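Shape matters. Shown next:

___
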Amino acid sequence: MVNLRNVLQYYRSYWSLSLFSISASSLFEVIDLAVPYSIGQLLNFYPISRLTVRCKDSWSALLPSAAKPTTASFG
């Protein structure tokens, strides 16, 4: 009859691989949680309104004719 110890001994050579796999998976999960959180914190630190104004100013420097509306002068 097979007991639990015999089954565990059979898979003993795979323990290091399984621990490595579980550790790598856990690390990727932590990164998956930390990166969006840190990006959100950065966006809260640097308000969106300042970011949009800065982007608009950058685009207007690149495309000055599109950023400034033209007005027609009458007479």
